[in-house]
Structure formats: C-alpha cells, structure tokens
Amino acid sequence: MADQRPDPDALLEKVQRAEAIRRRGRLKIFFGASAGVGKTFGMLLAARERRAEGLDVVAGYVETHKRAETEQLLEGLELLPLRAVNYQNTTLREFDLDAALKRRPALILVDELAHSNAPGSRHAKRWQDVEELLDAGIDVYTAVNVQHIESLNDIISQITGIPVWETVPDAVIESANEIELIDLPPDELLQRLKEGKVYLPQQAERAAKNFFRKGNLIALRELALRRTADRVDAQMRDYREDHAIQNVWQVKERLLVCIGPGGTAENLVRAAYRLAQLLKAEWIVVYVETAKLQRLSREQRDAILRTLKLAEELGAETATLSGYQLAEELIAYARTRNATRIVLGKPTRPEWKRWLFGSLVDTVIRQARDIDIHVVGKESDFLSQARENPYFSRSRLYLGLASEEQHTMFKWRAGYLWAVAATAISTGISWVIFDHFDLANLIMVYLLGVVVVAARYGRGPSVLSSFLGVVAFDFFFVPPRFSFAVSDSQYLVTFAVMLLVALVISSMTVSTRHQAKIAGHRERRIASLYALSRELAATRGEENILRIAVRHVAEVFEAQAVVLLPDATGRILYPKDEGEPQSCHGSDLSVAQWVYDHGQMAGQGTDTLPGGEMVYLPLPAPSGMIGVLALLPLNPARIALPEQQRLLDTSVSQIALALERVRLAAEAQRVQLKMETEQLRNTLLSAISHDLRTPLAAIVGASSSLLRDSDKLDAQARNELGQSIYEEAVRMAGLANNLLDMARLEAGAVVLNRQWQPLEEVVGGALAGMSSRMDNHPVSVRLPRDLPLVEIDSLMIERVFANLLENAVKYTPPGTAIEISAATDQDELVVTVSDHGPGIPAGEEERIFEKFHRVAREGSQGGAGLGLTICRAIVQAHGGRMWADSLPSGGAALHFALPLTEPPSIEHEEATHP
Amino acid sequence: MSNTATIIIIEDETQIRRFLRTALASEGYQVIEAETGKQGLTEAATRKPDLIILDLGLPDMDGVAVVRGVRAWSAVPVIILSARSQESDKISALDAGADDYLVKPFGVGELLARIRVALRHFSAVNVGEEGAFSVDRLQVDLVHRKVTVGGAEVHLTPIEYRLLTVLVKHAGKVLTHQLLLKEVWGPNYVERAHYLRIYMGTLRHKLEKDPARPRFLLTEVGVGYRLAVD
C-alpha cells in the first residue's frame, strides 16, 4: 500500500464522529486509582475556574463526605436539589436527572459515575444519567475510580480480593472528551487515611482496611496510570491518522470469541475485549449450542446468557449458533464473518481425555489454518459465581428451546418406562426368532430398540435401554441361558462392543433429533417473520397494520402488546380503538414517551426503568421515530434471549417500515388529491375566465357603443347591439346557474324534493323554458301513454333536460331534429334525448361526463363543460345512472335511467260527466 | 290599450330599479320606487297602486311578510322577483297571496307580458257576463258546466272539472300545488301532490293537442300551474 492518504471512509467516519460530539455535551472524567486521592476536590476546583470564566455551572450531585476543605469549594456553586426516593422504608437521595435537564446548565457536576441508582429510578446506573445529560448537550464533569472500569474489574478483584459490584462500561470512559488523572502516591494516601481524611463507609470498614494496603494501592495506581497512558497513546494514534502522518490502516481485524458453559467464559470475554481494544478490532462473541450443551443445567445456561449480555455491554456483537460439531460450526461462522482471529478458552478437560478425544482448541487449530487462534488462560472464577442477577435467575426458558425445559415429570418417567418396555419387546421378538437365527442377529433387534427409544425419549432412556439390552441379551440368550454367567469369555467382548455400539447409536440419534428440533425452531422463527412481512405487505391502512403487528407479537413472543403512536405534537397517546384481544391496556405513557424521544428500549430487562412489568421498544423508520411498541411478556426472560431479541428487533423494524409505508402512501395520496384539486381549480379558473370574459367583452363593447354613438347609429345597428348584449348576458346567466348547481351538488347541499309526478310534465316544463332557443330544432316527444309516475325532484330533472336540450342545440346544425323518448325497462325508467348532429367522438362517451371536458368544437359555443357533469350528478342523486352513445345514423344519444318504485295509490272517481 | 296604471317597485338594488323604472315608464306606467319593505308597504297603503313588483331579497324584511302585509287589506296584484336560490321563499310568497313570479335574470318583454296579464286578471276580463272563459280554442262555460275544445265538447270527471274551474277563476295567475289541492280536494289533501299531477295529466290529455307541450294548462316547474290567458 503506497497510498499515503487516509482512507476516505475512515475520514468520513471521523467527521461523523466529530459532528456527533459537537452536538453532544463534553464529558470530562476525573480519574483516580482509589478513593481518597482527591477526585471530587479536583473536580470542584476545575468547576470553580469554569464559573470564574463566566460559565453556567451547577452541582448536580457532589459527594463531599463532609470533608471541610471540599465543602468549602462547594460554597457559591448552585446546588441542584436531590431527589428523595423511598426504598424499603429508607429515604435515599439521588441525583435528579429531570431537574437537571430542565435547568439546562452549560456544565453540571455529577460525582461518582459508577453509582447504582435506587430502584425505581429511570436508569439503573448513574453513567446512564450522564449519557442522557450529554445527549441533551450539557457538559458534564464526573469522577470515577479505576476499579469501576468494567474490563479491569476482574483483574482488580483478583489483586485486592474484594469484588466490586458497581462498574462503568469502558465505552463510557472512552467516549470522554477529557480524562484528568488525579494522582497521589500511595504513601501520601496512607498518610491521609491515617489523618482520617479519607471517607470509609462504616459497614465496609474492615474490608476497606484490607483494601488500603500499600501493595494494593501501588497496583491500582499502576493500573490507573497505564489506563491513562493507553488513552494518551490512542489519542496520539488518532492524531497521526487524522494528519496522515503514517499509513497505519490495515485490514480491519475481527475477533470471534467462542464461549462455553464453564466459569471461564466471563474472563474470556474480558480478555477478548482488551485484545479487541488493543487491535482496534470489531469482535463477535458466539455460543455454539450442541446437543451436549443442550443438556446443561439451568444455572449453567443462566451463566451463558449473562456472559453474552456482558459481551454486549462491552460492545461485542453476540450470536447463538447451533450445530452438531462445535469446531466445524465455529470455523464456518468465522469464515462467513471474515474473522481474522478466533479467541478460545484454555481446554479444561483432563489431559488423557484431550489426548483420547481431542479438544475444541486442537480441532480448531488443525482445521482453521488461515485464522490466528488465541488461547486464553483460566483465571479464578469466584467472581462469576458471586454475580447474581435477580432478573436472570428468574428466567425459565432458554435460547428458544422451551420444550426441553418443559419436560414434565410424567414424560420423563415415561421415557424410562419405555426404555424398559423396548428392551422387553426386543427380548420377546428375539425369543420368537431365537431358533431360526444366529445369536449375533439378536443383537440387531436390541439395537433397533435402542434407536427407537433414543429417537423418541432422548439420551437417558436410550442409555438405559442400551444397558438393559446387554443385560437381557446375556440373561436370556447367551449360554448358559437364564443366567448372567457366560460360558465363553469371548462373549464379554461381544457385550462390550454391543454396549459401545448401542451408546454411539443412541448418542447420534439424540443429536440428530436435537438438530431437527433446532432446525424446527429456526424454521418457525423464519416462517413467523416471513408471515409477518407478507401480511404487512398485503395490508393497507394503519389500523390493519397495527392489528397485524399486535397479533404477531402476541403469538410469537407470548406477550400482550400494544403499539403507541404520537399525536401531531409528538405526545404519545393511548390507541383509540379497542384493538385485538391480545392488545395490552394500561401501559406507562411516560416510559413510552421517553422511549419515543430517545429511540432506546426501556422497561423490564433493560437498563432504563427496569422496574416495570412491560418492555417498551422504539419503532424506528428511515424518516424518524414512528412510535413505541409496548409488550407485556408472559415470560420476561424469553424476550431477553439474544435470539429472541433479534427476532423482536426484526419484527419491530418490519412493523415500523410497514407503518411508514402506509404513512408515505397516505401522504402521497394527499399530495395527489391536492394536486388534482389544484388542477381542477386551474381548469375552472381558465374555463370561467374564458366563458365570462368573452360575453363580458361583447356586452361592454356593445353597450359602450350604444351609449357613445347612439346618435350616429341607425335603428338596425342599435337593435343588433342590443340583441348581442341580451344574448351574451343570457349566456352568462346560464353559466352562473350551472356553476351554482355544480357547487351545490358537490358540496352535498342539494336536498332532493322528491315527489310523484308524470315525466311528461317535467319534459313540458323544460321545453317551455327552452322554447326561445329551440326555434331551429324541431323537437319530437314520444312518451308512452301509460308511463308510471316517478318520484323525482322536478326542478332537478328539468335541469337535466334543459342541459341535454341545450347541448343538442349547441352541437347540431340548425334544422336537425331532436327526440325525447322514454320507456320502462324492468325496474327502471330509461329516458333518451337524441339528436342528428355529428355525434360523440368515439372513445369520448365517458369523458364527456367529466368536469370541464368539452368536445372539440368550432366557434365559441358552449359553457364551461359542466352541463353533463351536473346532469349525471343529479341522476345519480336520484339513484339512477347516465350514459351516452352514438346512434347508428350518427347522432348523439344521451340516456338516463331512473329507478321505478311502486307509486302511491290513488282513489279513483267514476268518469262521469259533471 | 293605454297604460295609466300605477306600479310600485319594491327593490333594493339600484341597477335593477333603474332598469325597471325605464322599461315601465317607457310603456306609460306610473312608477313609484321603494328601497325597503317598510317603505314599500307605506307607499302601497298611501298610493293605491294597481300592481306591486316585489323583490324577495330585501334588506329590512322578509318578502313573504311584505306580501302578507299587502294582502291584509288589499287584493292588488303582486309580482315577485326572485333569484334561483330562493325557491322555497317564492312558493311561500305565492301561497301567501302573490299572483306571479319572475326569476332573475328576466327580459323586459316577459315582465311586461306578466304585468299585462296581472292587470287584466284583476279586472277579470276573460270571464264574461255569461260566466264563460275562453282562450284560443278552449272554452269553459261555467254556467252550463260545459267545456269545449275547438267546438267539440269534452267530457270531464267531477274532479277534473273542479280543477279546471279553480284555474279558470284565477286565470293567468300562478297557483301553487298546495292551493290547488286545498281548493279541489280539501285541506286534508295538501300533502298529496300526486293526485293533482295525475288529474292534471288526464285533463291535459283531454284538452291539449300535445300534452307534453301544453297550450293552456301550463306547468310552473316545482311551483304549481297556471292557466294561459292568451
């Protein structure tokens, strides 16, 4: 690599990091080797300086331990009141995060970064409070001791012999903008201790005395100094990278750490973390679940889960693999993830076993020639046993394989009974065929029994049936029969081989069965995801998606669920409708709000507000947070499993994407509608402006001419001008009427005044109204004498006729006839108005009913293209339909059908002469 | 025919009033203008007009109230001017006693024709001393209860005849459905407009040449009927 310039991707990453940092508050950590070195003192001094510079400084939480010199420094600083928390009848005073966020100082002091908050607080740990402050853009000064750093935790416990419970993830320390080491030589510290200047909690005094031994203090100081030096070194390297001093970019390292059920797993993870830090590598922690590991006790599996969780906290990616051969599975995974190094624990098997059966380390070393293998030594594991998380101890189901744990006593016993029965049946069959077959063949019958038992009832019963088989074979068939004695010593070898074969077969059958089970689980997971995505994809409407989401989550995760969405102002609300039966009612909106605002999980089993029963997951979509999924799991532990978590994450993101899709679609539709409305308005405006302006121009011109030149104009000219004014004005009146009708019909403001009447009368009314304009067009009306009454709004239907007649007059040459006819057709009255003009252009039969659509025409005849639209709207308001076609002879025919119902009865009188 | 009749125009729109005044004055009518309903009622009471032209959209009071006010003491013909959006007001005004209506915009020719009919109807010219009404080929002899079209006698049922006589008595005037139902069938039938329409249909088939385009029994769509007088 001759290129001396930094990798552009790396630079981009650097820039993005710088941006994120700029938005975040700055974190400064006052770092010390142990209590009593003066971290709080140093922090307060620095804070006073900042304040003297004019910065808005607030003391959020400062632990002075009543030391006079420290308390003196606190004077004059604004103190944020502490939050009182009642816990088991004692009142604890905690840092008030909400008050701090509300106060929003430029800089806040929050002492004791590793502190664990009282139960019921928003976050379990104070460092999480600090993170939130930083996210809010507030600068934070804090203090922490070296023994609280997560990755050094086990080393320090080993040195001092005192376990430390309160830890801070390394990522938090590393994200600090500044670390100031407060250093005090051990002798001076011991001197201060003697003078009583170091605070020691009463209950831990003896342990603390042990702690403050010179040897311990030297070791701690060294660790603190080294840690700080590491950081300086890292900064230096960063600087060099930034300034392209040397091309140090190499292929990115990726570590794959394989943990097992042993107590060393935690050490392995910590060691791997330190290695990953050193190499600046990504790291993946995997647990390969083989048939053997499936049979682990609940406690051991708890330990594995805890270790995976620890790895995640330290920044690793975790995965659970399942396979038959541990080494093969591991190497295959390493290859797919391009791991450059594999980290393994030192083998714990006795040497002879290792020699006989091999070990994971040996196999991996042999098979993965191109991958570096790191083997980490075993360390004291008293810590891993001491750490007891109440949450995990409650867990019942592991790694999605619930059924194994749900073995009832009955089924367990049944397995062994069947083992006995299988042996008895094998013996029976052997008894029958004993006379005809060789003794060796009987062994096969027993082996068959073992296979059946292994396949159905697992390891224990199959081992039992292996032994029973050998015993039964010996007793019943090997001479001398019906005695355990053996005549020929070569049978002893037969027994050994038979037992071995039976055991191997049973072991393999059990493995196969287990593989099938795991595959089944996998398949179910994938199937459920597939089903979800398919269902979501096929769904429209937010409500339906919510319903599917809730149902899916309820089924797959055995939980009640609810999707909480924000209103327009971003405030999370309860859903309005009832929802599915699996819907969850009564979630904590304030937690949901926090999750929505911060885009992080909260609730049961998480770091934030772990007190409640429910789990809250954010629903993130590309355009931003969509809402919150709240779960009330029947079995909280199950949700916490890494595999389940991943499934849940995937489900959640699918739901979020589906919701976003629906929203975008709705948005697009809204935009489309708006555009169409806009388009319509433009068409309307242009139509009206044309149709109003033309007659107006004529009227203004003609009337002004009449006014100005009335003397010069002869009677005929005056007449013509008057005529044109009149005609144009009538046209405008017609347009105004149509627009008014249209507006009323569209607004739904038209209430039909329906009355029973003969069609004839309405036709007559329309013809009478149009008479002045029908002079050039003979109209023939053909209405059957026996037409039934129709229930119509006569004014409205008259408008239909008027518009149709007007169109006919407009589009046909003078002198051509117009026909009006009607006929009953089943339960409809079909009315037709036809002409003998040019007809409707082919393909336009439907479009002519569109608003503002006008058939191409000569001259300036016509209105705004509203007539037929109005007609159809009126007919449809009557429950009828309207359509158009062309006559074979070429003219246009417009039809409308009105529904016929039984007219009211009428008392007839006798037709007598008065 | 000389037009010496006095006409009161109750209309708030200056432009409409101006055009009405010009048109009517040029025909020889004496025109009195009123801008508001109150002013109109005062003028009507003091000037003894022969006809009132009343706009329904007055700023100070309901046009229907003006009609009632006039009808309280006078049978003077009232012609209503209405806009298309005042359909129901128009019918109320006709029910209240107005004689005719015109929908804006209207032509002067039409207005003058209506005025002529109204003035004539008031003097009941069509019904002669013998109690006979005639227009074109239609003749109704109220005394002998005989109806002929072009000289040929037409046989009517009692109800048809009663309907025709009501129309004849108010010839030229717009009669609302409600009024006709009440007069012909009685007050219990005012909601059964289909009775009226069916009988009007049969009457037309007996009297008219082309019932779809009636010559005598004119339809005022959505309002009622009118018997043509010329």
UniProtKB/TrEMBL annotation, chain B:
It comes from mine drainage metagenome. GO terms for cellular component: cytosol; protein-DNA complex. The lineage of its organism: unclassified sequences, metagenomes, ecological metagenomes. InterPro entries: CheY-like_superfamily, OmpR/PhoB-type_DNA-bd, Sig_transdc_resp-reg_receiver, WalR-like, WH-like_DNA-bd_sf. This is KDP operon transcriptional regulatory protein KdpE. Keywords: Cytoplasm, DNA-binding, Phosphoprotein, Transcription, Transcription regulation, Two-component regulatory system. Residues 6-119 form the Response regulatory domain. It is found in: Cytoplasm. Its main location: cytoplasm. Coiled coil: none annotated. One of its GO terms (biological process) is positive regulation of DNA-templated transcription. PROSITE patterns: OMPR_PHOB, RESPONSE_REGULATORY. Gene3D superfamilies: 3.40.50.2300, 6.10.250.690, Winged helix-like DNA-binding domain superfamily/Winged helix DNA-binding domain. One of its GO terms (molecular function) is transcription cis-regulatory region binding. Residues 130-229 form the OmpR/PhoB-type domain.
